[in-house]
Write a structure and sequence with these properties.
An eight-stranded mixed β-barrel has the order 1-2-4-5-6-7-8-9, surrounded by four helices. 47% of the residues lie in helices and 19% in strands. It has helices at residues 14-36, 77-83, 86-107, 122-126, 130-141, 154-159, 161-173, 190-193, 205-208, 215-230, 243-251, 268-277, and strands spanning 39-48, 54-65, 69-71, 115-119, 148-153, 177-183, 200-203, 234-237, 256-257. It is an alpha/beta fold. The model has no long low-confidence stretch (mean pLDDT 92). The protein has twelve helices and nine strands. Bound molecules: ligand C2E and calcium ion (CA) (3 copies). One calcium ion is lined by residues 58, 119, 151, 181. Residues 23-279 form the EAL domain. This is EAL domain-containing protein. It comes from Mesoterricola silvestris.
Protein backbone atom coordinates (compact mmCIF):
# COMPACT_ATOMS: atom_id res chain seq x y z
CA UNK A 1 0.00 0.00 0.00
CA UNK A 2 2.89 2.35 -0.62
CA UNK A 3 5.30 3.46 -3.31
CA UNK A 4 8.37 1.29 -3.86
CA UNK A 5 10.67 4.08 -4.98
CA UNK A 6 14.40 4.24 -4.31
CA UNK A 7 14.97 5.07 -0.65
CA UNK A 8 11.39 4.41 0.44
CA UNK A 9 10.83 3.26 3.98
CA UNK A 10 9.27 -0.21 3.85
CA UNK A 11 7.13 -0.02 6.93
CA UNK A 12 4.68 -2.56 5.55
CA UNK A 13 7.21 -5.17 4.45
CA UNK A 14 5.65 -8.32 5.92
CA UNK A 15 9.01 -10.09 6.36
CA UNK A 16 10.33 -7.10 8.33
CA UNK A 17 7.25 -7.28 10.47
CA UNK A 18 7.76 -10.95 11.18
CA UNK A 19 11.36 -10.33 12.16
CA UNK A 20 10.48 -7.42 14.42
CA UNK A 21 7.72 -9.47 16.01
CA UNK A 22 10.04 -12.43 16.61
CA UNK A 23 12.56 -10.11 18.24
CA UNK A 24 9.90 -8.52 20.38
CA UNK A 25 8.66 -11.93 21.52
CA UNK A 26 12.19 -13.11 22.21
CA UNK A 27 12.87 -10.00 24.28
CA UNK A 28 9.82 -10.69 26.43
CA UNK A 29 10.82 -14.33 26.76
CA UNK A 30 14.34 -13.37 27.83
CA UNK A 31 12.97 -11.02 30.46
CA UNK A 32 10.67 -13.72 31.84
CA UNK A 33 13.48 -16.29 31.68
CA UNK A 34 15.56 -14.14 34.02
CA UNK A 35 12.67 -13.80 36.46
CA UNK A 36 11.95 -17.53 36.35
CA UNK A 37 15.56 -18.60 36.67
CA UNK A 38 15.78 -20.44 33.34
CA UNK A 39 19.50 -19.78 32.87
CA UNK A 40 22.26 -22.16 33.93
CA UNK A 41 26.02 -22.09 33.64
CA UNK A 42 28.14 -24.75 32.05
CA UNK A 43 31.83 -24.95 32.80
CA UNK A 44 34.62 -25.80 30.37
CA UNK A 45 37.94 -26.94 31.88
CA UNK A 46 41.03 -24.84 31.14
CA UNK A 47 43.95 -27.26 31.07
CA UNK A 48 47.64 -26.60 31.74
CA UNK A 49 49.44 -27.78 28.60
CA UNK A 50 52.58 -28.69 30.58
CA UNK A 51 50.86 -30.45 33.49
CA UNK A 52 47.72 -31.75 31.75
CA UNK A 53 45.68 -30.75 34.80
CA UNK A 54 42.60 -28.59 35.27
CA UNK A 55 43.81 -25.09 36.12
CA UNK A 56 40.43 -23.42 35.87
CA UNK A 57 37.06 -23.22 34.14
CA UNK A 58 35.31 -20.87 31.76
CA UNK A 59 31.69 -20.21 32.74
CA UNK A 60 29.37 -20.32 29.70
CA UNK A 61 25.70 -19.41 29.97
CA UNK A 62 22.84 -21.58 28.66
CA UNK A 63 19.12 -20.90 28.52
CA UNK A 64 16.95 -23.88 29.42
CA UNK A 65 13.81 -22.90 27.52
CA UNK A 66 10.64 -24.68 28.72
CA UNK A 67 9.67 -25.72 25.15
CA UNK A 68 12.78 -25.33 23.04
CA UNK A 69 15.18 -26.99 25.46
CA UNK A 70 18.77 -25.79 25.68
CA UNK A 71 19.33 -22.57 23.73
CA UNK A 72 23.00 -21.72 22.99
CA UNK A 73 24.29 -18.22 23.85
CA UNK A 74 24.84 -17.23 20.22
CA UNK A 75 21.04 -17.23 19.84
CA UNK A 76 20.33 -14.76 22.64
CA UNK A 77 23.47 -12.88 23.78
CA UNK A 78 23.36 -10.27 21.01
CA UNK A 79 19.66 -9.55 21.59
CA UNK A 80 20.34 -9.32 25.32
CA UNK A 81 23.15 -6.90 24.50
CA UNK A 82 20.97 -4.71 22.24
CA UNK A 83 18.11 -4.55 24.75
CA UNK A 84 20.32 -4.00 27.78
CA UNK A 85 19.11 -7.26 29.37
CA UNK A 86 22.72 -8.39 29.30
CA UNK A 87 23.37 -6.22 32.35
CA UNK A 88 21.07 -8.13 34.78
CA UNK A 89 21.89 -11.41 33.00
CA UNK A 90 25.62 -10.69 33.27
CA UNK A 91 25.21 -9.88 36.96
CA UNK A 92 23.51 -13.22 37.48
CA UNK A 93 26.35 -14.97 35.57
CA UNK A 94 28.96 -13.27 37.76
CA UNK A 95 27.14 -14.16 40.97
CA UNK A 96 26.56 -17.76 39.95
CA UNK A 97 30.10 -18.31 38.64
CA UNK A 98 31.61 -16.83 41.81
CA UNK A 99 29.29 -18.86 44.04
CA UNK A 100 30.37 -22.01 42.21
CA UNK A 101 34.06 -21.12 42.25
CA UNK A 102 33.93 -20.34 45.97
CA UNK A 103 32.21 -23.66 46.70
CA UNK A 104 34.64 -25.65 44.51
CA UNK A 105 37.70 -23.98 46.04
CA UNK A 106 36.55 -25.38 49.40
CA UNK A 107 35.27 -28.78 48.22
CA UNK A 108 38.10 -29.46 45.72
CA UNK A 109 41.12 -27.46 46.90
CA UNK A 110 44.07 -27.18 44.51
CA UNK A 111 47.53 -25.70 44.68
CA UNK A 112 47.79 -23.26 42.96
CA UNK A 113 44.07 -22.49 43.29
CA UNK A 114 41.93 -22.94 40.19
CA UNK A 115 40.61 -19.88 38.40
CA UNK A 116 37.11 -19.09 37.16
CA UNK A 117 36.81 -17.22 33.85
CA UNK A 118 33.72 -15.10 33.20
CA UNK A 119 32.85 -13.45 29.88
CA UNK A 120 32.03 -9.74 30.04
CA UNK A 121 30.00 -8.17 27.22
CA UNK A 122 30.46 -4.65 25.81
CA UNK A 123 27.44 -3.17 27.55
CA UNK A 124 28.47 -4.73 30.85
CA UNK A 125 32.05 -3.52 30.54
CA UNK A 126 30.87 0.06 29.90
CA UNK A 127 28.45 0.00 32.83
CA UNK A 128 29.62 2.19 35.71
CA UNK A 129 28.55 -0.34 38.35
CA UNK A 130 30.54 -3.30 36.98
CA UNK A 131 33.35 -3.11 39.52
CA UNK A 132 30.84 -2.95 42.41
CA UNK A 133 28.89 -5.87 40.93
CA UNK A 134 32.08 -7.93 40.66
CA UNK A 135 33.28 -7.09 44.17
CA UNK A 136 29.83 -7.84 45.63
CA UNK A 137 29.72 -11.21 43.85
CA UNK A 138 33.19 -12.08 45.17
CA UNK A 139 32.28 -11.12 48.73
CA UNK A 140 28.97 -12.96 48.71
CA UNK A 141 30.72 -16.09 47.43
CA UNK A 142 33.69 -15.79 49.80
CA UNK A 143 35.85 -16.12 46.71
CA UNK A 144 39.45 -14.93 46.48
CA UNK A 145 39.54 -12.08 43.87
CA UNK A 146 42.87 -13.50 42.71
CA UNK A 147 41.02 -16.54 41.36
CA UNK A 148 38.62 -14.59 39.12
CA UNK A 149 39.49 -13.94 35.48
CA UNK A 150 37.40 -11.58 33.35
CA UNK A 151 37.37 -12.23 29.60
CA UNK A 152 37.02 -9.13 27.46
CA UNK A 153 37.31 -9.09 23.68
CA UNK A 154 39.72 -6.87 21.78
CA UNK A 155 36.90 -5.00 20.07
CA UNK A 156 35.28 -4.12 23.41
CA UNK A 157 38.57 -2.78 24.74
CA UNK A 158 39.32 -0.76 21.65
CA UNK A 159 35.94 1.06 21.58
CA UNK A 160 37.22 3.46 24.19
CA UNK A 161 40.82 2.51 24.96
CA UNK A 162 41.39 5.13 27.65
CA UNK A 163 38.22 4.28 29.58
CA UNK A 164 39.06 0.57 29.20
CA UNK A 165 42.54 1.17 30.55
CA UNK A 166 41.12 2.90 33.65
CA UNK A 167 38.57 0.13 34.24
CA UNK A 168 41.23 -2.54 33.80
CA UNK A 169 43.57 -0.82 36.24
CA UNK A 170 40.78 -0.82 38.83
CA UNK A 171 40.26 -4.56 38.37
CA UNK A 172 44.00 -5.17 38.66
CA UNK A 173 44.18 -3.12 41.85
CA UNK A 174 41.82 -5.75 43.32
CA UNK A 175 44.05 -8.55 42.05
CA UNK A 176 41.47 -9.71 39.46
CA UNK A 177 42.95 -11.29 36.32
CA UNK A 178 42.15 -10.03 32.83
CA UNK A 179 42.09 -11.97 29.57
CA UNK A 180 41.81 -10.63 26.04
CA UNK A 181 39.37 -13.07 24.44
CA UNK A 182 39.30 -14.05 20.75
CA UNK A 183 42.72 -12.45 20.30
CA UNK A 184 43.68 -11.88 16.69
CA UNK A 185 40.15 -11.42 15.38
CA UNK A 186 39.86 -7.73 16.31
CA UNK A 187 42.03 -4.77 15.60
CA UNK A 188 44.19 -4.31 18.69
CA UNK A 189 46.69 -1.60 18.48
CA UNK A 190 49.98 -3.07 19.62
CA UNK A 191 50.94 0.21 21.28
CA UNK A 192 47.84 -0.02 23.49
CA UNK A 193 48.32 -3.70 24.09
CA UNK A 194 51.49 -3.13 26.06
CA UNK A 195 49.75 -0.51 28.23
CA UNK A 196 46.76 -2.69 29.11
CA UNK A 197 47.30 -4.60 32.37
CA UNK A 198 46.34 -7.89 30.76
CA UNK A 199 47.50 -11.25 32.14
CA UNK A 200 46.51 -13.56 29.31
CA UNK A 201 45.86 -13.55 25.57
CA UNK A 202 43.34 -16.11 24.42
CA UNK A 203 44.07 -17.30 20.88
CA UNK A 204 40.86 -17.56 18.89
CA UNK A 205 39.63 -20.96 17.73
CA UNK A 206 39.75 -19.85 14.08
CA UNK A 207 43.59 -19.90 14.24
CA UNK A 208 43.79 -23.08 16.31
CA UNK A 209 41.64 -24.84 13.67
CA UNK A 210 44.36 -24.44 11.05
CA UNK A 211 47.33 -25.40 13.27
CA UNK A 212 49.62 -27.80 11.47
CA UNK A 213 47.38 -27.77 8.38
CA UNK A 214 47.56 -24.26 7.07
CA UNK A 215 50.87 -22.39 7.29
CA UNK A 216 49.24 -18.97 7.82
CA UNK A 217 47.27 -20.00 10.92
CA UNK A 218 50.32 -21.81 12.26
CA UNK A 219 52.44 -18.69 11.80
CA UNK A 220 49.80 -16.48 13.43
CA UNK A 221 49.56 -18.71 16.51
CA UNK A 222 53.36 -18.77 16.84
CA UNK A 223 53.46 -14.97 16.48
CA UNK A 224 50.74 -14.41 19.12
CA UNK A 225 52.59 -16.68 21.56
CA UNK A 226 55.88 -14.87 21.06
CA UNK A 227 54.15 -11.47 21.30
CA UNK A 228 52.56 -12.53 24.59
CA UNK A 229 55.92 -13.76 25.89
CA UNK A 230 57.66 -10.50 25.12
CA UNK A 231 54.88 -8.55 26.84
CA UNK A 232 55.02 -10.84 29.90
CA UNK A 233 51.58 -12.31 29.28
CA UNK A 234 50.36 -15.89 29.34
CA UNK A 235 48.57 -17.60 26.45
CA UNK A 236 45.48 -19.79 26.39
CA UNK A 237 44.40 -21.47 23.16
CA UNK A 238 40.69 -22.13 22.67
CA UNK A 239 38.90 -24.65 20.49
CA UNK A 240 41.52 -27.43 20.66
CA UNK A 241 39.79 -30.43 19.10
CA UNK A 242 42.62 -32.79 18.21
CA UNK A 243 45.72 -34.32 19.74
CA UNK A 244 47.70 -32.89 16.84
CA UNK A 245 46.65 -29.32 17.65
CA UNK A 246 47.50 -29.89 21.32
CA UNK A 247 50.97 -31.21 20.47
CA UNK A 248 51.63 -28.21 18.21
CA UNK A 249 50.66 -25.84 20.98
CA UNK A 250 52.85 -27.67 23.48
CA UNK A 251 55.80 -27.32 21.09
CA UNK A 252 55.11 -23.60 20.88
CA UNK A 253 55.08 -23.50 24.71
CA UNK A 254 51.50 -22.27 24.88
CA UNK A 255 50.51 -22.20 28.56
CA UNK A 256 46.92 -23.41 28.60
CA UNK A 257 44.31 -24.95 26.36
CA UNK A 258 40.57 -25.40 26.16
CA UNK A 259 38.56 -27.45 23.74
CA UNK A 260 36.62 -30.59 22.98
CA UNK A 261 39.90 -32.56 22.92
CA UNK A 262 39.94 -32.15 26.71
CA UNK A 263 36.31 -31.57 27.51
CA UNK A 264 33.13 -29.92 26.30
CA UNK A 265 31.52 -27.37 28.62
CA UNK A 266 29.97 -29.40 31.46
CA UNK A 267 26.96 -29.05 33.73
CA UNK A 268 27.75 -28.36 37.38
CA UNK A 269 27.24 -32.05 38.24
CA UNK A 270 29.54 -33.31 35.47
CA UNK A 271 32.17 -30.71 36.31
CA UNK A 272 32.12 -31.88 39.93
CA UNK A 273 32.52 -35.50 38.81
CA UNK A 274 35.58 -34.43 36.82
CA UNK A 275 37.00 -32.42 39.73
CA UNK A 276 36.60 -35.49 41.92
CA UNK A 277 38.65 -37.54 39.44
CA UNK A 278 41.31 -34.80 39.10
CA UNK A 279 42.25 -36.07 35.60
CA UNK A 280 45.61 -35.70 33.75
CA UNK A 281 45.41 -35.31 30.01
P1 LIG B 1 33.66 -17.66 23.59
O1 LIG B 1 33.84 -16.80 24.79
O2 LIG B 1 34.69 -17.57 22.52
O3 LIG B 1 33.52 -19.15 24.15
C1 LIG B 1 34.01 -20.28 23.51
C2 LIG B 1 32.92 -21.00 22.76
O4 LIG B 1 33.51 -22.07 22.01
C3 LIG B 1 31.87 -21.67 23.64
O5 LIG B 1 30.64 -21.66 22.91
C4 LIG B 1 32.39 -23.11 23.75
O6 LIG B 1 31.38 -24.04 24.06
C5 LIG B 1 32.93 -23.31 22.37
N1 LIG B 1 33.99 -24.32 22.32
C6 LIG B 1 34.89 -24.64 23.27
N2 LIG B 1 35.75 -25.58 22.85
C7 LIG B 1 35.38 -25.88 21.58
C8 LIG B 1 35.88 -26.82 20.59
O7 LIG B 1 36.84 -27.53 20.79
N3 LIG B 1 35.23 -26.83 19.39
C9 LIG B 1 34.17 -26.04 19.13
N4 LIG B 1 33.59 -26.14 17.93
N5 LIG B 1 33.68 -25.15 20.03
C10 LIG B 1 34.27 -25.07 21.24
P2 LIG B 1 29.28 -21.22 23.58
O8 LIG B 1 29.20 -21.72 25.00
O9 LIG B 1 28.20 -21.57 22.65
O10 LIG B 1 29.43 -19.64 23.67
C11 LIG B 1 29.52 -18.87 22.52
C12 LIG B 1 29.84 -17.42 22.86
O11 LIG B 1 28.77 -16.83 23.61
C13 LIG B 1 31.07 -17.28 23.71
O12 LIG B 1 32.22 -17.36 22.89
C14 LIG B 1 30.84 -15.91 24.32
O13 LIG B 1 31.20 -14.90 23.42
C15 LIG B 1 29.34 -15.90 24.49
N6 LIG B 1 29.01 -16.23 25.89
C16 LIG B 1 28.84 -17.44 26.46
N7 LIG B 1 28.54 -17.31 27.77
C17 LIG B 1 28.53 -16.00 28.02
C18 LIG B 1 28.27 -15.20 29.20
O14 LIG B 1 28.04 -15.70 30.32
N8 LIG B 1 28.36 -13.84 29.07
C19 LIG B 1 28.65 -13.26 27.88
N9 LIG B 1 28.72 -11.92 27.82
N10 LIG B 1 28.90 -13.95 26.77
C20 LIG B 1 28.83 -15.31 26.84
CA1 LIG C 1 35.37 -16.49 26.28
CA1 LIG D 1 36.88 -16.98 23.08
CA1 LIG E 1 36.00 -17.53 20.03
Amino acid sequence: AKAKGEGSIEIFDPSMNAKALARFQMEGELRRALERGEFVLHYQPVVGLDTGRIEGFEALVRWIHPERGMVPPLEFISLAEETGLIVPLGTWVLEEACRQAGAWSRAFPADPPRLMNVNISARQFQHKDLIETVLDALRAARMDPGTLKLEITESIMMRDPLASLEAMKTFKSHNIHLVIDDFGTGYSSLSYLKRFPVDTLKVDKSFVDGLGKDPESTAIVAAIISLARSLGMRVTAEGIETMDQMVHLQKLACDQGQGYHFSRPLSREKAEELLGQDPRW
